[in-house]
UniProtKB/TrEMBL annotation:
GO biological process, one term: L-arginine biosynthetic process via ornithine
GO-annotated molecular function: argininosuccinate lyase activity
Subcellular compartments: Cytoplasm
Domain Argininosuccinate lyase C-terminal span(s) in chain numbering: 377-445
Species whose genome carries this gene: Melaminivora suipulveris
Gene name of the record: argH
Alphabetized Gene3D superfamilies for the sequence: Fumarase/aspartase (C-terminal domain), Fumarase/aspartase (Central domain), Fumarase/aspartase (N-terminal domain)
Protein name stated in the entry: Argininosuccinate lyase
UniProt family annotation: Belongs to the lyase 1 family. Argininosuccinate lyase subfamily.
Length: 471
């Protein structure tokens, strides 16, 4: 068997099964760019501090440039025997530039190296995710802007509650994704701190300039305790928690899209290319994309559970357990990015390659929404509020309206279909202007408090989001 970096101490080679069990190169090789960036920053500092020569530094830079080309061209020979991305790259560097390559690891351990790599990689991914969260928000804002005056029933307990603007409903999700973006930005602040220079666990005997490495790598600071630096994965757990919340929001939206697409609602359609047919039922168009997003939420939440459980029993400092942080983290990032991309496209629609006309997007059936809002006594609260304005205490008004709703539903009619005389039978203060208050538009317009569904409020929120998102 091939000699290992630490082999002098070992009297027998590692078994193939153990090799396969302990190696991580086939998944952690995706950290290669971060690994090389970290190594180059470390080498530059070693040279600046006089720990390695300028010649060695130049050789390391040359070697890393070659390795970069090899990996990009798909010609790099990743070896299971070399366990992980770090040892693979270092071994190749030494093959290419000799002793200078062997000097790179001075004052460094894979423990601080891997913690640095994961942070650098995750920082880049968080930036991409922030962009995608903005895309999804812009798509929602765009659809909302076209649907301020479209009214659908708002629900509580999935029972018709009060009419709301469809734009208002969509902007609720914009709020959620805006908070998600804030959370990601906050996680990023704690991700972007440098472990390198902590070495294996206790710091190092070489006069390293850790601040310099942090500056080179664009990090906001250095980890202040070497034991914590090599063993902390809070940042990964926090990220998984923030990602889980994004997915939960996507999942709630998915559930609504699925319900709205169902024939019993028929509120919306989504473009055909986000739906699939059935192999047996020719009439089918199934909302597979939102359904899968709802399903994949379980997967991401599972990764959060995996990561947090991974940490709970670990003594200080580094333990090999931590190698298990990568696959859940990678899959969380991949799942989240794909989901956000597809949602941005599905909601907002994309300019088509030929015509430039939008394809995709949500088409709204405003008549179906309106008809649904007119069922279920969505404006009953407005009748109560009307009576309060005539001087009734709210609790009495509530009771009076309950009687009116009971009578209307016994007759199978809406409140607006009762005659003025009938309504006055419930309370003499009711006058002809009640019919304005009981319309869907009247109900919306009346909810003109900040954050309410009145079109004036919704337009103000739209403007705020458009300015914030540069939409
Ligand atoms: N592949 C390892 C990981 O992912 C790198 C660090 C290994 N360090 C060690 N002392 N075995 O965590």
């Amino acid at each position: 068997s091939k000699a290992q970096a630490w082999s002098a101490l070992f009297s027998e080679p590692m078994s193939d099964l153990v090799k396969r069990y302990t190696s991580s190169v086939f998944f952690d090789k995706r950290l290669w760019q971060a690994d090389i960036a970290g190594s180059l920053a470390h080498a530059e500092m070693l040279a600046a501090q006089g720990i390695i020569s300028a010649g060695d530094h130049a050789a390391i830079e040359r070697g890393m440039a070659t390795i970069t080309r090899e990996i990009e061209a798909g010609q790099f020979d990743w070896q299971l025997d070399l366990e992980d991305v770090h040892l693979n790259i270092e071994a190749r560097l030494t093959q290419l530039v000799g002793d200078a390559g062997k000097r790179l690891h001075t004052g460094r351990s894979r423990n601080d190296q891997v913690a640095t790599d994961v942070r650098l990689w995750l920082r880049g991914e968080i930036d991409l995710i922030a962009g995608l969260l903005a895309d999804v928000q812009r798509a929602l804002v765009e659809v909302a802007a076209q649907n301020v005056d479209v009214i659908l029933p708002g629900f509580t307990h999935l029972q018709v509650a009060q009419p709301v603007s469809f734009a208002h409903h969509l902007l609720a999700y914009v709020e959620m994704f805006a908070r998600d973006a804030e959370r990601m930005a906050d996680v990023r602040r704690r991700v972007n701190v440098l472990p390198l220079g902590s070495a294996a666990l206790a710091g190092t005997t070489y006069p390293l300039d850790r601040e310099r490495v942090a500056r080179t790598l664009g990090m906001d600071g250095v980890c202040q305790n070497s034991l914590d630096a090599v063993s902390d994965r809070d940042f990964a757990i926090e990220f998984a928690a923030a990602a889980s919340l994004v997915m939960v929001h996507v999942s709630r939206l998915s559930e609504e899209l699925i319900v709205w697409m169902s024939q019993n609602f028929a509120f919306i359609r989504i473009a055909d290319r986000f739906t699939t047919g059935s192999s047996i039922m020719p009439q089918k168009k199934n909302p597979d994309v939102p359904e899968l997003a709802r399903g994949k939420t379980g997967r991401v939440v599972g990764h959060l559970m995996g990561l947090i459980t991974l940490m709970k029993g670990q003594p200080l400092a580094y333990n090999k357990d931590n190698q298990e942080d990568k696959e859940p983290l990678f899959d969380t990032v991949d799942t989240l990015k794909d989901t956000l991309r597809i949602f941005a496209e599905m909601i907002g629609g994309q300019p088509g390659p030929q015509t430039g006309a939008k394809s995709g997007g949500i088409s709204v059936n405003r008549q179906a929404m309106r008809a649904a809002a007119l069922k279920g006594y969505a404006t009953a609260t407005d009748l109560a509020d009307y009576l309060v304005k005539k001087g009734l205490p709210f609790r009495d008004a509530h009771e009076t309206v309950a009687h009116a709703v009971k009578a209307a539903s016994d007759q199978g009619v809406d409140l607006t279909e009762l005659s003025l005389q009938q309504l006055q039978g419930f309370h003499p203060a009711i006058e002809a202007d009640i019919f304005d208050a009981l319309t869907l538009e009247g109900s919306l317009n009346a909810r003109n408090t900040l954050g309410g569904t009145a079109p004036a409020q919704v337009r103000a929120q739209l403007a705020r989001h458009q300015a914030r998102l540069g939409a």
